[in-house]
Each structure stands twice: as C-alpha cells, then as structure tokens.
Amino acid sequence: MNRLDQVVDRRGTNSVKLTHMKKHFGREDVIPMWVADMDFECSDAMKAAAHMVADWNLYGYADRESDYFEAVQSWLDRRFGWKVKPEWIAHAPGCVTAISIAIHEFTNEGDGIIIQEPVYYPFHMQVEMNNRKLLNNVLIEKDGFYEMDFDDLRAKAKEAKMMIFCSPHNPVGRVWTAEELMKVQTICLEEGVLMVSDEIHFDLVRPGLTHTIAATLSEEFANNTITLTAPSKSFNMAGQQISNIIISNPELMKRYESQRETMGIHKPNNLGIQLAKAAYNDSEDWLDEVVAYIFDNFTFVKNFVDERLPGVQFHIPEGTYLGWLDFKAWKFSDAKLQDFVYNKAKVGINPGYKFGKGGSGYMRINVATSRETVQKALEQIEAAYQEMEE
Q1: Rounded CA gap, 353 and 359, in Å?
Q2: 294 is in which domain, residue-wise?
Q3: One domain, residues 272 and 293
Q4: Which residues pair with 115 in a beta bridge?
C-alpha cells in the first residue's frame, strides 16, 4: 500500500480541523476536509530534524543562520530558476501576517486595495479590518475555467495603492500563465500599484504544468513586488509559523522589516527553522510523490462527480490541493447547500460564498488526504443526494 494511503488519526494532536468542527459545522461527526493542511505524515528527513531539536533540550530564542538562507535559495533556484540573495529573504509567521504588515506599511486608511474574488477570504478580511477600500476585480468563469478581467483591473488600479494577488489561485485552482502575469504586472507598474503576490501554493502544481513566479518576469516588476512564500503548504508544516517573504527592492525591504518590528513580530522558532531546512534540502522526492498523489485524487474526484453526482461540475485544478465543487445546478440556496453537505452528507468542507463574489453555489474541498477518505466523503454526498431524491 502507498504510504500516502494511510488514514492518519489526528485526534489528540490539537489539529484545528478537528478542534473547531463544532464551531464551523454545528456537529463533530463530519469528515473534516476544510482546513488547508495535509493528512500526510511529513518526510523522514523532517521527522529526524524534529527529533534532533527535541534532543537539544534547550528551546530558547533562535534565528535563521546562513545554512537556512542557502536552503531557501537552493530551493527557489532548483524549482523555479529564481536566484535570490539572502538579504532579500524576510520573515513572517505566515503569509496572512505578511499581508497585514504590507497593508500597514504601504497603504493608509481609505486607500484602495485590489483583490480577485472568489479568493481566499483572509484577503478581504485584512483589507476591511484595516479600514482600507476593497476593490474587487472579480474573476470571469467560463465553463469552469477562470480568467482575469484586465479592462476592469486597469480601471480598479487607477484608484488603488496595492494589489493582493493569489498565484496559484485559491480556491479556483488557476496557475497563471507568464502572459497573464505580464499583463497584471504591467498594469500595477504603470498605475503605481504595489504587487503583493501570495504564492504559498507554488510547489503544488499539476504535473506537466509550470508555475511562474510573478517577480521573475523583469527587474522592474521585481522592484514593485513583495512575494510571499512558505514551506507550510508544500511540506505540511503550517503549524510552525515560518514563511519566506522575498523582497529584492532594498527600500521596500527596509520598510517591511521596520513595520514587522513595530508590530512586535519576533523571530521564528527553532523547530520551524530546522524543519524548513530538512524540507528544502532533503524532502524533494517526498513532495513529488505527494503532488502526484494529490492530482490522482483529483482525477478520482472528477470521475466520481461525472458518473455519480448528477448536475455537479468539477474541473481538475491546475494548482493547490483544493478542489472547487460546483453545485449550482442543484439550485440550492447557500444555506440549504451547507445544511445538505454538513447535516445530511456529514462532510466538512468550505462554503463557496465565504470566498466572495462568484463563490455562491460552490464548495471547497481539500483532497490532500487518503484516497479512502476522499472516496468516503463523496459516497456520503452521493447517498445523501439519493435519499433527497427519493
């Protein structure tokens, strides 16, 4: 049996996807497929790194040393052909934290910030909670495939100071082409809009496709871009609170770091540092195996939906491990769809409306789990649908 087929019991591990089920779903007996982390055990190299830290018996303050930066640099070069310098690599506990730092430092209250809904909902939360003006360049859906509205983006950019960009896109699964990225970057540069590019899912791309880092297209674009990366999604270490924020423009870096310190955001923890090094240096084969398994899961979902869930639409995403299920043909209200999925099917997935405009009638499902779990969840949706039809 493939080791990724193992059903991992995460009870007793303080897992958010389990401890918060009552709050989100009103019940404890749903299959939890909502939080964006994996149910796969980490690589052997990462486990060894965790044991090494435990055996030190000293857990004081820590910081990144030269070997950490070398690991990040090597990864970005090997996987994306991006040669970064150590002084370009800033810290944040997570990409949402980095977005908040950037909003505080590079915009003022009332300034416009562009997002592209339906999109990861902390984007609009950060804009609104910080009293900035939300400018929504809504994505265009054509038969399950999403595109950007560049005319609208240009119009929105004229009153914006910043764009929070999602690449690969969560939840619609697009891996933007170099041509699309050129258009976005050109608009931002010409209209004086700072690009904050969240590329946290950049390692999780459908085999055969290539992710292009937005800042790599030109030096001019790089000087206008803050790129958010992390080992957290790729290597299932989100709980370690360590991200790599890449800023090649020294003035932007100086201001970012000053704001981070002003906000009292401290150095990373030592476990996170060591796990990240083990991930980047010694876990590439593990990641490749995981990505292949995830997209095999997506193929399974596609076949199941097409054959056994009448009216539901599903398109295999280009990136991320998050599927975007289209239930619109059932003509349920969002409230009824939630009730059906949570209380009839007993599956815990994210309601699409939370991701903003264009999300109504959809549900987001995390397939970074065992095939058995994916199959069970879909079978429960199928059984609930058949019972409803009867």
Answers
A1: 4
A2: 3-43+285-389
A3: no
A4: 136
- The pTM (predicted TM-score) of the whole model is 0.97
Say if CB 346 and CB 21 are below 8 A apart.
no
Question: 235-260 b/e with 16+ CB inside 10 Å = b?
Answer: bbbbebbbbbbbbbbeebbebbbebb
Q: Are residues 77 and 139 in the same domain?
A: yes
Q: What is the pLDDT of residues 90-148, one digit of tens each?
A: 999 999 999 999 999 999 999 999 999 999 999 999 999 999 999 999 999 999 999 99
What is the CB-side half-sphere exposure of residue 164 using CA atoms within 13 A? Answer: 33
Same domain, 94 and 197: yes
Contacts made by residues 186-192, CB under 8 angstroms, sequence distance 24+: 187/150, 187/153, 187/154, 187/157, 188/157, 188/163, 188/224, 189/220, 189/221, 189/224, 191/154, 191/157, 191/158, 191/160, 192/161
Give residue-wise pLDDT tens across range 146-177: 999 999 999 999 999 999 999 999 999 999 99
Q: Which residues of the chain have pLDDT under 70?
A: 1
Question: In which element (H, E) is residue 194 found?
Answer: strand 194-198
pLDDT of residue 6: 87
